[in-house]
C-alpha cells in the first residue's frame, strides 16, 4: 500500500517538471518568488516602466514584480535616461516561457531572473553574456565563498549575479524554549542541540513533557529542505546523479523524527502549517533570512519579543536565491549592466536593496562596514539577527555544487517528505527506493544511482 501511495504522489507531480524555482509553490524553498508573486496574467505581459527618458529601455521579466519595480525606481533616480520595463511572469511559468522564446526565436528580455536550482539549466540554453569577461569583468571572488561559484558554468562563464544571499538558521519561540530546555539563549541552545541526534533526544523529551501535545518541528517538508541544503554531498559527479548519496541522510533523519514524533504532520507552506507559528505547540522552524518576513512575522504578528535564532547542529545553510543575467541578444547590454551593477555591486545600490527590499547583496566587502549590518531586533528579543545571519551563519555555510537536475531531485524530495508522513509504516529504505525509481524515470540522459 505504501508504494501505491507514494506512486500516486509522484505521478501527480510529474506535471510540475522543472517549472518551479528554488522549491515548490508554498514551500519555503521558493524564496523571493511565490511569497511575492502577483496575479497579473503572464500571457498579457503586464509591465511597468521606469521614469521617462531619451535613452534605451531595458526589459526585465520577473515573478518578483513589486521588488523589481522598487529597484527600477531607485535606479532611475541615478540614471533617469535609462527606462526599465518590468514584465510580470508567473513563477510557475517562468522557465518554460524562457525555453519557449529560445525555441521559437522570439524576443527575449534584456535581463532574466535565474532561479537558484535551475542555474545550470539556464546556462545550457546558451543565451547569456559572460559577466566575467569584457566589458563587465566581474571577479566572482568578491562574493561570499559559499555562493561565488553558483552561477559559474563548467566553461568558466559567469551567467548571473545573485540578488540577495539567503543564509538560513533555526528560529525558535523563546517562551517554549525556556519551558522545555530551561533557556532561551541562542548560544546555550546551540550547545543543547550540538549534534543532529540531539533533535531526536530533545524532541522526544518535548513529547513526553507535553503529554504528546507539543512538537519540536511543525512540518517534514521544512525539515527536509534544511537537511538537504545543509548536506554538501554533490548531487552530480562525473556525469552521474548520486540520488541515494544525496538523499540518504535527509530521509533517514526525517523517518527517525517521524517515528519519535519530533516533527508534526503538517504540510509545509499550507494555511494550517502557517498557523502553527503563533501557537504554543511547535517550537523550532528552519529559517532562511527571507522567511522572517514572509512566514514568521506574517503569521505571528503579536509575537514580537518571543522569537530567537540559533545555529543549526548542521551549521548554517543556504536556501533560495535568484540571479540576474543579461541575454546575449539584447541591444542594450550596457544599460542592462548599469542596472545590475548599480543595484547589486555598488554601496548605494546595496543600501537601497537592504533598506527597501530587505535584500542583502552577495558582495562581501560591504559587510565589513559595521554600519552596513547590525543592531538589536525587537521582534527577536533584542538579538542582533543581522550580524548573526551575515557573519556567524554565512561563515558556517558549506559550498554546494549545481546540477541541471537540482530542481528535479528537490521535487522528488518534497514528495518523499509528504509520503513518509502520510504512511508511518514506510521505512527510509522504502522511500529511498521509490525516490530512486522516480529519479531514474525523470532523468534519462545520465546514470542515476
- Biggest sheet: strand arrangement: 1-3-2-4-14-5
Low-confidence stretches: 1-54
Individual helix count: 16
Give the C-alpha Rg: 22 Å
Determine the fraction of residues in helical runs and give it as a percent range: 25-40%
What is the C-level CATH assignment of the largest domain? Answer: Alpha Beta
In the CATH hierarchy, the architecture of the largest domain is 3-Layer(aba) Sandwich
Give structural notes.
InterPro entries: Bact_solute-bd_prot1, SBP. Keywords: Cell membrane, Lipoprotein, Membrane, Palmitate, Signal. By secondary structure, this protein is α/β, with parallel strands linked by helices. A six-stranded mixed β-sheet has the order 1-3-2-4-14-5, covered by helices on one side. Strands 6, 7, 10, 11, 12 and 13 form a six-stranded mixed β-sheet that branches. It has two domains: 38-89 and 108-165 and 320-372, Periplasmic binding protein-like II (D-Maltodextrin-Binding Protein, domain 2, 3-Layer(aba) Sandwich), CATH 3.40.190.10; 167-319 and 400-448, Periplasmic binding protein-like II (D-Maltodextrin-Binding Protein, domain 2, 3-Layer(aba) Sandwich). The chain has helices at residues 2-13, 65-78, 94-104, 119-124, 174-181, 186-192, 196-209, 220-230, 243-259, 271-274, 291-299, 333-345, 347-357, 385-393, 406-422, 428-442; strands spanning 47-48, 57-62, 83-88, 111-115, 161-162, 167-173, 215-219, 236-237, 240-241, 263-266, 282-288, 307-310, 317-318, 322-326, 447-448.
Amino acid at each position: 500500500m505504501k508504494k501505491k501511495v507514494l506512486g500516486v504522489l509522484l505521478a501527480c507531480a510529474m506535471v510540475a517538471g522543472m517549472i518551479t524555482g528554488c522549491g515548490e509553490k508554498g514551500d519555503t524553498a521558493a524564496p523571493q518568488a511565490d511569497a511575492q508573486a502577483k496575479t497579473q496574467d503572464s500571457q498579457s505581459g503586464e509591465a511597468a516602466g521606469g521614469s521617462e527618458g531619451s535613452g534605451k529601455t531595458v526589459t526585465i521579466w520577473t515573478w518578483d514584480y513589486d521588488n523589481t519595480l522598487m529597484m527600477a525606481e531607485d535606479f532611475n533616480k541615478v540614471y533617469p535616461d535609462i527606462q526599465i520595463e518590468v514584465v510580470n511572469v508567473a513563477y510557475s511559468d517562468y522557465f518554460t516561457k524562457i525555453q519557449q522564446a529560445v525555441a521559437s526565436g522570439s524576443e527575449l528580455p534584456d535581463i532574466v531572473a535565474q532561479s537558484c536550482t535551475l542555474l545550470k539549466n539556464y546556462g545550457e540554453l546558451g543565451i547569456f553574456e559572460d559577466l566575467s569577461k569584457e566589458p563587465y569583468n566581474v571577479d566572482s571572488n568578491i562574493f561570499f565563498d559559499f555562493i561565488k561559484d553558483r552561477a559559474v558554468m563548467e566553461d568558466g562563464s559567469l551567467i548571473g549575479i545573485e540578488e540577495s544571499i539567503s543564509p538560513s538558521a533555526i528560529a525558535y519561540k523563546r517562551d517554549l524554549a525556556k519551558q522545555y530546555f530551561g533557556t532561551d539563549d541562542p548560544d546555550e541552545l546551540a550547545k543543547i542541540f550540538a549534534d543532529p541526534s540531539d533533535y531526536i533526544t530533545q524532541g522526544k523529551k518535548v513529547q513526553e513533557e507535553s503529554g504528546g501535545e507539543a512538537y519540536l518541528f511543525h512540518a517534514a517538508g521544512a525539515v527536509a529542505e534544511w537537511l538537504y541544503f545543509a548536506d554538501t554531498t554533490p548531487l552530480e559527479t562525473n556525469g552521474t546523479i548520486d540520488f541515494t548519496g544525496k538523499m540518504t541522510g535527509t530521509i533517514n533523519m526525517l523517518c527517525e523524527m517521524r517515528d519519535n514524533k519530533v516533527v508534526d504532520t503538517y504540510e509545509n507552506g499550507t494555511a494550517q502549517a502557517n498557523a502553527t507559528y503563533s501557537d504554543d505547540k511547535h517550537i523550532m522552524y528552519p529559517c532562511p533570512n527571507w522567511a522572517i518576513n514572509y512566514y514568521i512575522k506574517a503569521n505571528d504578528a503579536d509575537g514580537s519579543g518571543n522569537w530567537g535564532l540559533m545555529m543549526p547542529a548542521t551549521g548554517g545553510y543556504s536556501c533560495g536565491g535568484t540571479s540576474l543575467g543579461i541575454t546575449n541578444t539584447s541591444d542594450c547590454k550596457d544599460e542592462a549592466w548599469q542596472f545590475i551593477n548599480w543595484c547589486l555591486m555598488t554601496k548605494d545600490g546595496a543600501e537601497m536593496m537592504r533598506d527597501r527590499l530587505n535584500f542583502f547583496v552577495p558582495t562581501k566587502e560591504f559587510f565589513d562596514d559595521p554600519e552596513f549590518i547590525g543592531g538589536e531586533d525587537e521582534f527577536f528579543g533584542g538579538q542582533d539577527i543581522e550580524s548573526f545571519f551575515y557573519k556567524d551563519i554565512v561563515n558556517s555555510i558549506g559550498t554546494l555544487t549545481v546540477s541541471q537536475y537540482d530542481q528535479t531531485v528537490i521535487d522528488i524530495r518534497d514528495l518523499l517528505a509528504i509520503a513518509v508522513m502520510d504512511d508511518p509504516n514506510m521505512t527510509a529504505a522504502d522511500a529511498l527506493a521509490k525516490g530512486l525509481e522516480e529519479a531514474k524515470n525523470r532523468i534519462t540522459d545520465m546514470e542515476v544511482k
